[in-house]
Amino acid sequence: MISLLANRTRYGHHEVMKQVGIAKLKAHLSEYLRAVRSGQTIAVLDRETPVAQIVPITERSTLPVRKPARGAPPPNRVPLPEPLKIKVDVVDLLLEQRQSHR
After folding, report:
1. What is the pLDDT of residues 7-50, one digit of tens each?
2. How far apart are CA 29 and CA 23, in angstroms?
3. Does residue 65 sit within a domain?
4. 66-96 burial, b if ≥16 CB within 10 A, otherwise e?
5. Number of domains into which the chain is organized
6. Is residue 81 part of a domain?
7. What is the pTM of this model?
């Protein structure tokens, strides 16, 4: 599951850091985040090279959380434009364009 990367000393305590490859982290993200919530630090590896660490937040106030403005659409939800009000069959237009490019 989660293998050991190294033993290290932190604040005079013996701490074991876990490691995970990027693909496995993506596939089991919730599992690894539960481990971080419980206080563990996870090293992220790109093949054999450490590229990042996921560490638990020690003080909640140190991480600012941005909330959307009132009345704004939910994040990642872009409103669709109004439909065109033309009396042309789109399929006919596509056929005409394809025939003119031959």
Report:
1. 444 444 555 689 999 999 999 999 999 999 999 999 999 999 99
2. 10
3. no
4. eeeeeeeeeeeeeeeeeeeeeeeeeeeeeee
5. 1
6. no
7. 0.47
